[in-house]
Amino acid sequence: MTRILRDCADEVGTLPGSSSKTPEVEISCSGIYEISKLLTAAVPLEITLANVANILPTFLRMRHGAIVVLAGEGEPEITASAGVADLRQSGARHIIPRAAIDQIVTTGQPLVIRETSKSELFRVDPQPSVSSDTIPITFIGVPLKAAHKLVGTLWIDRFRDSATELRHDEDIRFLTMAANLIGQTVSFHRALNTAGPQIIQPQRKSPEGDRNDASRAARIKVDWIVGESPAVKQVLEIVSAVAMTNTTVLLRGESGTGKEFFAQAIHELSPRRKKSFVKLNCAALPEGVLESELFGHEKGAFTGAISQRAGRFELANGGTLLLDEIGEISPAFQAKLLRVLQEGELERVGGTKTLKVDIRLICATNKDLEVAVANGEFRADLYYRINVVPIVLPPLRERPGDIPRLSKVFLDRFNKENNRELAFTAPALDLISQCYFPGNVRELENCVRRTATLAHSKAIAPSDFACQNSQCLSARLWKGDDGGHGGKTIDELTRGRTIPAVSPFSTPPGGASHSEVMPVKACDPNGPACPAISPRLTERDRLIDAMEKTGWVQAKAARMLGLTPRQVGYALRRHNIEVKKF
Prior knowledge:
Layout: H1 2-6, H2 8-12, H3 23-39, H4 45-55, E1 64-70, E2 76-82, H5 85-89, H6 98-107, E3 111-113, H7 120-124, E4 137-146, E5 149-159, H8 162-165, H9 168-195, H10 207-221, H11 230-243, E6 249-252, H12 259-268, E7 277-281, H13 287-295, E8 296-297, E9 309-310, H14 312-315, E10 320-324, H15 331-343, E11 345-347, E12 354-356, E13 360-365, H16 369-374, H17 380-386, E14 389-392, H18 403-418, E15 423-424, H19 426-433, H20 440-454, E16 459-460, H21 486-494, H22 539-549, H23 554-561, H24 565-574
Parallel strand pairs: 6-13, 6-14, 7-10, 10-13, 15-16
Antiparallel strand pairs: 1-2, 1-5, 3-4, 4-5, 8-9, 11-12
Helix pairs in contact: 3-4, 3-9, 10-11, 11-12, 18-20, 22-23, 23-24
């Protein structure tokens, strides 16, 4: 397009006998310039062609005209016409001279018919009547081409007189240049519709646009993460943004929040998705075995090493490595791991050859690493190395609206595995949505599977849930029991009896032991005296309420909330709650 504009004056040329450009030449160049501006506008192709057709009478002497874009089978796909308003009002039907267009398409050459009434093409396809049948009409048509491929035609007609008779060559040159521009535009729009936005990748986007695109990609591709709550959407936006880099990610959250699924999402949305996604639970192996699993070993390195084995770092080379429960590894092994993460180099156990690895590292933990560093249990330098982009996963109690969705997904999975056709009733979904689920998504899945297994009919009702029959043993995690009463408490719970518990609101007089405390009924999930699960309070409000009722003693608040003191301390820092001292 730029070349056509640059060569406009040379293409139109100077009239014989003239020493400078005539007004006609200047009008032609101005017309090409105006057409090019319309063709580069960011509007649909139909509107673009209509705007070009409407501007043609400004630079040409014409009566009617049209831009006809042909489909693959040769039929008109888009027709943008000019000067046909009077014809439509008069009821004329034959606007497009089809026979003439067919000849242009067949020959691929411009066509000029000085008097249409004497042409065989127009006797087959008669033109609409004008005010005077004695006035001859001239037709000029040129092909639309793009990369030597014909995509349509551009034609005009006008009254024939002595003034227009001398302008045929000039008008053909002007229409040919305009047709070249139009043909390139049509070809570009077709390529854009076929190949999609990737053909304009060199165009830089704003960071906001990239984040929005990443968020949409996450919603489309990460179908194994179920959730529409604001908390989950926020995490997915962060995941989508960080996935496009090689930055180390630290996934934090309570047990059962789905850290492994979010790690897989980071891998699948990253440029490394075609490589391996390797995962290892660091807490499941002793230190000696963990070193062999991560770094590999040579043959004969230790008893039982009968062959060489590649470690997880080697297997994940070029891809992503997930180290789950990173906070559980020993201080001695932390030093070995730090060198690999810093240098990207390792030696197999029993080997001397240094191996280079290129991995994307994702770590996950439910441990309070800050407290572990302060207590000397976790190396500070390793903490700073892995805590580059921390992502805190929301517990299930912060996304109660997702509980019905997750429950249906788990039930569908159960039905497929067991050839069942179970479904939740509306009251059943309402009931399960009010549960606390300290084990988060993992506990919810277990609850659904247990209920589906023991359901009495295909429609799961509230009475099918264990909590409605005083058989939900996991309730001990959030009810008033401090967990120190052994199997007797479980037996009493299954019978629906009271549970001996330490009252969270008072201290036993005279330093009485737990066994001397009177039995109390476990807190009512719907009552305001059970701050751990009251639906009227947010997590931050429940935390403050528990701290105030226990005199800002974290150990007592932890017993009230069914948490550990470490979890309460972590929650206080996460919510920026200042501890009051008396």
